[in-house]
Amino acid sequence: MGLRDKIFIRSLALVYFLAFSSLAFQVIGLVGAHGILPVSGLLQNIKSQTVNLSQCLNILPTIFWFNSSDSFLKISCYLGIIGSILLFTKLKSSQRLGLVFLLFVLYLSFVNIGQVFFGFQWDVLLLETGFLTMLYCFFYRYEFARPIFIFLYRFLVFKLMFMSGLVKLTSQDPNWANLEALNYHYLTQPLPNPLSFFVHQLGSGFHKVSCALMFCIELIVPFFIFINSRLRSFAGLAFILLQLIIMLTGNYCFFNILVVALCVWLFDENTLIKFIPKTSIKLKFFKTPLDILNFKINERLSRMGIISDNLWQKFYKIILRLVLVFILAYYILVNIFIIISRAPISETQRLIAFQQYSKLSQPIERFHIINPYGLFAVMTTVRHEIIIQGAKHIPGELAPGNWQDYEFYWKPGDPSKSPQQVAPYQPRLDWQMWFAALSNYQEQAWFINFCIRLLENKPEVIKLIKHNPFPDQAPDYLRAIVYEYKFNNLENYSKTGMVWTRELKGFYLQPTHLQKD
Questions:
Q1: CB distance 433 to 411 below 8 Å
Q2: Which of 81, 93, 154, 495 has the fewest Cβ atoms within 10 Å of its own Cβ atom?
Q3: How many structural domains compose the chain?
Q4: Which helix (H) or strand (E) holds 197?
């Protein structure tokens, strides 16, 4: 493997490690048997509409059709962690392929049963990257295949960056059009970090210039990828710089690390050798079933006299070339329709492009291996936070007693609590609470389930939050109220040390309780 391949594979291994490690702490509370959205309910609903297991797998590809118990969910996370650690070591090509395949299947299985908790762009980006890498590992020993996959990786970076700018440009959001979106971004992003407060305090002029530079990086620089080596390297540096800024001013899980890993493909091998020392981590492996199978097939064909070794190799390479041409054409064509469907053209033309994309991508849609991208198409300008409160019943009175707050680990709650750095870990419940605040609870079925679990004091769900005011006995009543949060100004911050100010806006969920039998 070349240095570029090693850097990318090990970076991808790191991302998988972060993704599965993060999930291991949360999966039971999110989709376990007593979690917020139990996977068993989802699978049972699909099973009731199908005839056999093959149909179920076709509708929703996931290993959890075979076992969806809490223990198996945990084991799958640990298997992903172990696989990612092994992928970081020096492997034979077939062993690397086996591990990348395992990690892809495991993560796909979680994404497909994760429901709203896995509806994030970095989840599908990891699947698209993982699938490309799986193909690359399969074709790696063939010199004719490598330039094609290098191009596909570069095209993925182009699509990701260009679409990120394109969706903002075509969303008709005046805040992007006026270059004022970053006046709000650091305040209203899902999980601000410690630097978000200070960057927010910078003047409107700074935010406008930052927004203009961001548009240049996302809309113009991506085309440099296809011009020449020097401009491609410049594009890679620009994208990495943008990701580092995003990483320093917000909590976006493993997304930024994954994008930086993909940007490695924008640099030539010689460029990387100049700046990055070669390292090697060796671990001896036994032969994999794939090694043995490949050897036995070739040996048997030769013995039977059906085809000579030389003729077999020529025939095999011709087939591989045809497969590669199909993959390249299909991948590029589907992505072109994705981009056109978001382009600033007429509504009719966009609809036609979207229909073509839907037709072409329908056979692979459930595998999430070719996806559209683009975060923050419409900028949120006001930060609303949901505060969940519980109370005990007072004997002899209709009204409950004092309301006490449930406190989350990372999302804003107590105004005296400053934003914290949580990335690359992803607290999926905290993230989903941000989305819930953008609408009402009637549109967030998972939120009702979450409240029921709190009223039941389910330990699997309680582990997802920092403070449960009712550790011994569940509350009798639950309610949710909405506050508007703002960053304090620097003068008040220096006097009080308080990052947040907040104003009560009303009920998100009226006081409710479990119906007693």
A1: yes
A2: 495
A3: 2
A4: helix 194-200
